[in-house]
Amino acid sequence: MLERRELFPNVIEINYQARRRFGCSVYLVFSGTEWLLIDIGYEDTVDEIIEMIRQMDFPLAGCKYLVASHADVDHIQGFARAQSLLPGAVIVGHAEAARLLAEKDRLMTYAEIPAQNISIDLPEIKIGKTVKEGDKLELGDLTLEVWHTPGHTHGQLAFRMGDLLFSGDNLFRDGCVGNIDAHHGSNIPDFIKSLERIRDSDVKWLLPSHGPVFRKEPEMIQKTIDRLESYQHMADFGTCAVDWPLLDDWEDELVSGVDPKSVSL
Fold first, then answer.
1. Are the CB atoms for 142 and 10 separated by under 8 Å?
2. How far is CA 241 from CA 38, 62, 197, 238, in A?
3. Which pLDDT belongs to residue 13?
4. What is the rounded CA–CA span in Å between residue 103 and residue 238?
5. SS3 146
6. What's phi and psi for 145, nearest 5 deg?
7. CA 232, CA 261: separation in Å to the nearest integer?
8. How far is the C-alpha of 227 from the C-alpha of 154, rounded, in Å?
9. Which of 16, 234, 32 lies closest to 140 in space, CA to CA?
10. What pLDDT does residue 261 have?
């Protein structure tokens, strides 16, 4: 039997447990004999992950939920294989994630990124239970409160359990956020609102979908918010921007006849 390396009471992170990186963070939350997984990663690591869970003395029949933080392929590709090994488990996610998977939308799930020659298999995955803001997942004596935190994707969810927030791709320890891409369904104003919610909450620890767990620091989150605020007004972010003030300035200068050589940066 493997010794359980709990990050917090009733919480195991599979990469931390294995002392090596499988891919995205995979959180095992348990209460008594019931347990769930938040995300799973790619299918080629699923068998090893499930075997590790078995060796930690978790009954495979006790898996109640396989939870999708969102529908990106690097988080959910392995759910089809996991469900075949854990037939009692119900796949849980946001309605938008359920729609993307039902339609096998390869672009919005990042299974297909033509510009980078990325093409990843997206098996048939059916979300059996959709959840929304304010719903609760009951697991033995534990309750996970569902937060809808759009921005990275519209279907991005986070899950609060006491002082902990399983925060998905909202924020990482270095202040980075999940990819911002309009073709992926990203929305910067929504992202800012989600980060403000996390900043202003009384959770103490953020458990992200990539990288290490970290203590919530409002000052760090504010720096990220400030950066995203600027992205809204920069051509760099194209269709994710809400405006481009430079063009308004240019129009005003054209109307007033400003000599470009007289303008200092």
1. yes
2. 31, 45, 21, 6
3. 96
4. 27
5. strand
6. -90, 130
7. 28
8. 20
9. 32
10. 64
Strands (E), 135-181: 136-139, 142-148, 157-161, 164-168
**β-pairing verdict for 142-148 and 63-67:** unpaired
Report in angstroms the alpha-carbon separations of 138 from 2, 52, 60, 87, 126: 26, 24, 18, 19, 21
Two structure tokens written together for 229: 């605020």
Q: What local confidence, expressed as pLDDT, does residue 246 receive?
A: 82
Nearest to 188 by CA among 223, 216, 230: 230
Report CA dihedral (18, 52, 5, 140) to the nearest 10 degrees.
Answer: 140
Amino acid at 250: W
Find out whether 61 and 88 touch, Cβ atoms under 8 Å.
Answer: yes
Residues of the chain with pLDDT under 70: 261, 265
Laid out side by side, the sheet with 27-31 consists of 11-13, 27-31, 34-38, 63-67, 90-93, 129-130
Tell me the two tokens of residue 262: 């007289």
What does the pLDDT read at residue 165? 98
pLDDT of residue 134: 98
To the question of pTM greater than 0.90 for the whole model, the response is yes
Q: What are phi and psi of 42, to 5 degrees?
A: -80, 155
pLDDT at 184: 87
